[in-house]
Design goal:
The protein is an all-alpha fold. The protein folds into two domains: 115 residues, Four Helix Bundle (Hemerythrin (Met), subunit A), CATH 1.20.120; 144 residues, Helix Hairpins (Orthogonal Bundle), CATH 1.10.287. The chain has twelve helices and no strands. The two termini are 47 Å apart.
């Protein structure tokens, strides 16, 4: 039974079948967003969701049985723990909010696709590895935001109270600038003054129009260059480093398997050569 379950879990047919079931589950989650269609076909959709849950339960049982006398080894793989958590959560009582929670849990089934596709696992692993380095990059970016936000309040607070009236509003406006969402509008307001640009519908808030062409241009262009170009490349570099580390880990895990396969092949070749030599001796005699 154990060997049979091992063969099932290692077969490509089983892996592809689970992938297809996950994709069907994802489609069913999307269909549930159409209320009228869901109500008309409620019985069919309920049956399919139950069937998908049974398939996931069966997958867990097969993988646990495949571990033989050490079923706890199944839980040593974080991806298996993730799969088990999604299946187990479907049996928890949620009271009055059960419908919303059930929909959320069905949505989480889509994430099982990560476990079904090794390349996605490597990508997620790379992102998780990058979190510590991304944290330090985020600290640098926060310092940059803080310095420019304080400077923005000092330089543009009177001219542009909508975007730079205080520190928190200034930081929010700079977030808009760094995402390049109409950032030139904010720059032009402070280049030409609020009475000449951008405050047409809210002219009552423009009380002290003082444009500064060169100062505003240098301020915003430098912030975009540093915040968007440099820090974006830093984030990409950190993620790429995480990708290389994740790829090297995958290769390191696969190397022992290859060496074991080579040893088995060498032993079989030796056995065949011995059998051939024995046959030759018998023929000679």
């Amino acid at each position: 039974m154990v060997e049979f379950c091992k063969k099932i879990t290692q077969s490509n047919i089983f892996k592809n079948f689970i992938t297809v079931v996950i994709l069907i589950a994802a489609i069913l989650v999307g269909i549930s967003t159409y209320d009228q269609f869901s109500l008309r076909h409620q019985s069919i959709l309920s049956f399919l969701n139950t069937l998908i849950l049974l398939v996931f339960i069966l997958e867990v049982f097969i993988k646990v049985i495949a571990e033989g006398n050490k079923p706890w080894k199944y839980f040593m793989d974080p991806w298996n723990v993730f799969d088990f958590s999604i299946v187990f959560a479907a049996f928890l009582p949620f009271g009055g909010s059960s419908v919303a929670v059930l929909r959320l849990l069905r949505l989480l089934r889509v994430l099982k696709l990560i476990n079904a596709l090794p390349k996605l696992q490597m990508l997620v692993g790379a992102l998780l590895r990058s979190i510590p380095s991304m944290f330090y990059v985020s600290i640098l970016l926060s310092l940059l935001f803080y310095i420019y936000a304080v400077a923005g309040v000092f330089f543009f607070g009177e001219n542009d109270p909508v975007h730079f009236r205080n520190l928190q509003t200034s930081m929010l406006s700079l977030f808009r600038v760094v995402t390049l969402e109409d950032w030139t509008d904010i720059m032009y307001i402070n280049m030409y003054g609020c009475e000449n640009y951008g405050y047409d519908s809210i002219m009552s808030r423009c009380t002290a129009s003082t444009g500064n062409k060169w100062g505003a241009a240098i301020f915003f262009v430098s912030f975009v260059l540093i915040g968007t170009m440099i820090f974006l490349n830093l984030f990409i570099g950190v993620i790429m480093t995480g990708m290389d580390e994740a790829r090297s880990d995958v290769e390191a895990k696969n190397k022992p398997k290859k060496s074991v396969d080579l040893l088995e092949l060498e032993s079989k070749v030796d056995e065949i050569s011995e059998m051939i030599s024995r046959l030759k001796i018998k023929n000679d005699s």
